[in-house]
Design a protein that fits this description.
mainly beta; Immunoglobulin-like; 5-stranded antiparallel sheet; 4-stranded antiparallel sheet; 0% helix; 52% strand; disordered N terminus
């Protein structure tokens, strides 16, 4: 029986800023991820990925090795980790939910192999929406206000007698010790001071809402992010979409027909990545683009690593990494023309290129497992498939040079 391969997509990087992704899926069946419902992702200064899962506790992935902590093998108080935040001082803070406990919301710190756990920090439920490290203090945005952890103690923080409302603080972003932004997210009647955005500078508070500024929403303000180019600009997630504010001008980025995004991230080139319920995974780079073909599941969190790759936490498919492939037209690699095509009568693939530079051809399956890999420096190479057990299905290939730069990617379908 003949083995038929169809060249599905051939993508050659030979134009300015051509971009695509290699998709890698990590789940409970092919990795050390302890649960396929990923709620939160944090990437530390060493590019280590920390993952909070729905029922599997906390996981750590360094690109090769996995570690996990749950109630069976550690002192973490619960396996439902709704929020994880890694700090530059080596600490990892998590927020857990233990539905069977009279005090269901817990705050935990993992440091140097040990756990410390707290509940009852505030007068109400200790539902943490954000952890931040600044000036050697850990700042906790809780349902009952802003709290600071210093010298092994928690204290309620309000610099100027009710400047910061005692409820509904969802995030804090420091610019300097005396200048910071506070996100407010009360769900009650619009117009109350517990909504909108707060700027604190020299202990003077300025409150922004839809009644006194261009702020587009009064109900929810979440996930404050610093702009990569403008230290005075702050980004946030609101009921009106993704919003930026530089102290003067407001900008609103909302995909048509959408409202509050569930997750967002801004990459190193300034593109906005978002997920909206019922509208899917999208990117904004001046116009909106759907990326549903990469992630067709509910997304709970999006993070960007130091290589500008995307890490995506889903509700059903585990952790997804989108490895960015980007080559500038100024890069001499973009001048290389490579052809990869299957034979229709023999169990072979052909790779042709314009010079004798050594390349590595790698073919992977849908789970990113390598099914074959060959190096060649010939102008034309025939790759025999008879030595490999390759079942019918969809496969991905990528071609790298000796510097491990990706020159080309594509997809192949084996039909029989």
């Amino acid at each position: 029986m003949k083995n038929l391969y169809i060249l599905l997509v051939l993508f050659t990087i030979n134009n300015l800023n051509a971009q695509t992704f290699t998709k890698i899926v990590y789940n409970t069946s092919n990795s050390g991820l302890p649960h396929n419902h990923v709620r939160s992702i944090s990437i530390d200064s060493n590019d280590i990925i920390w993952i909070g899962t729905q029922q599997g506790g906390l996981a750590r992935f360094d690109g090769v090795n996995w570690n996990s902590w749950n109630t069976s093998n550690s002192d973490i108080p619960g396996n439902n980790v709704r929020l994880v935040e890694s700090m530059n001082n080596g600490e990892v803070w998590v927020s857990c939910i233990i539905s069977s406990n009279p005090n269901p919301y817990w705050i935990s710190r993992y440091y140097e192999g040990g756990w410390e756990n707290w509940t009852g920090i505030s007068d109400g439920l200790d539902i943490a929406d954000a952890f931040d490290l600044y000036n050697n203090k850990v700042w906790l945005s809780l349902t009952n206000g802003l709290y600071v952890y210093e010298n092994d103690e928690f204290s309620h923080f309000d610099p100027n007698n009710n400047c910061i409302p005692p409820t509904s603080v969802s995030d804090i972003l420091f610019i300097t010790p005396d200048k910071y932004w506070v996100a407010l997210s009360d769900y009650s009647i619009a117009g109350d001071k517990d909504h909108g955005l707060l700027k604190v500078e020299q202990n003077t508070c300025t409150h922004y809402d839809m009644n006194n500024s261009g702020f587009p929403s009064d109900n929810v303000t979440l996930d404050l992010r610093r702009d990569k180019d403008n230290s005075d600009k702050v980004w946030m997630r609101t009921n009106a979409g993704i919003v930026s504010f530089d102290g003067i001008d407001w900008e609103i980025f909302s995909a048509p027909g959408t409202s509050l995004p569930t997750a967002y991230a801004i990459d190193s080139v300034g593109d906005i990545w978002t997920y909206y319920n019922f509208h899917g995974f999208q990117k904004y780079d001046g116009t909106w683009h759907s990326y549903q073909n990469y992630v067709n599941d509910e997304i709970n969190d999006i993070s960007v690593d130091a290589q500008n790759n995307l890490w995506i936490g889903t509700s059903n498919f585990g952790l997804i990494q989108l490895q960015r492939i980007l080559v500038s037209a100024d890069d001499p690699l973009s001048e290389m023309q490579i052809k990869c095509y299957p034979t229709l009568v023999r169990h072979e693939l052909f790779v042709e290129k314009a010079d004798a530079q050594e390349i590595t051809f790698t073919l992977t399956d849908m789970n990113n497992r390598i099914v074959l890999q060959e190096k060649t420096a010939h102008y034309k190479t025939t790759i025999s498939m008879t030595e490999h057990t390759i079942l019918p299905g969809l496969y991905f290939y990528y071609i790298k040079n000796i510097n491990n730069d990706i020159l080309q990617t594509g997809k192949l379908i084996k039909t029989e």
